Amino acid sequence: MGCPHPRAKLPRPTGLDPNPSLGTGGAVDWGWYHRTMPLNEWSETVLVGELTDEPGLTDDLQMLLQRAEGKSSTPHVILDFSGVTYLNSSNLAQLLQLRKLLAASKSTLHLCGVKDGVWSILLMTGLDRLFKFTDDLPTALAAAQMGA
Predict the structure, then answer these.
(1) Residue 4 φ/ψ, nearest 5 degrees
(2) How far apart are CA 81 and CA 59, in angstroms?
(3) Would you say 15 and 28 are in contact if contact means Cβ atoms under 8 Å apart?
(4) Strands 132-134 and 109-112, sheet pairing
């Protein structure tokens, strides 16, 4: 029992059968399901990802990396860090890799809503000079649309 990757799985409560035609008696044990980050295609050229703390942050960034690697033209990416309170070294490496992939395709990476704890980590590592930051999502959307 349990899931193969507990950081990527969250328990889902038992609920009604989403497809009663399968004859499961109306109740289904959803078991474990994979949690995915809200990823919104705000426009044809802007992609917005709403990040949260671990256990999902590493998987969310990995999903973004896979998406960026698989496309020849990647839209500008905005990562909303308002739900993130801590970054580990793996997260920093993933952000650097994502920035590199996006720069190669002439796209930009904007980080917005960065909290004080995350900001201090970025300052200590010197990464505050590599990324584009905005205070909030609307400002980041405007900057991405203008190509800044």
Answers:
(1) -70, -25
(2) 15
(3) yes
(4) parallel
Range of the domain at 92: 36-145
Work out how many domains the chain is built from and give that number.
2
Q: Return the CATH number at 45.
A: 3.30.750.24
Alpha carbons 100 and 109: distance in angstroms, whole number: 9
Please give the model's pTM, rounded to 2 decimal places. Answer: 0.73
The CA–CA distances, whole Å, from 12 to 18, 24, 58 equal 14, 17, 21
The predicted structure's pLDDT at residue 105: 86
DSSP assignments along the chain, one per residue: ---S-GGGEEE---EE-S-GGG-STTEE---EEE----EEE-SSSEEEEEEE-TTSHHHHHHHHHHHHHT-SSPPEEEEEEEE-----HHHHHHHHHHHHHHHHTT--EEEES--HHHHHHHHHHTGGGTSEEESSHHHHHHHHHTT-
The whole-number pLDDT of residue 72 equals: 64
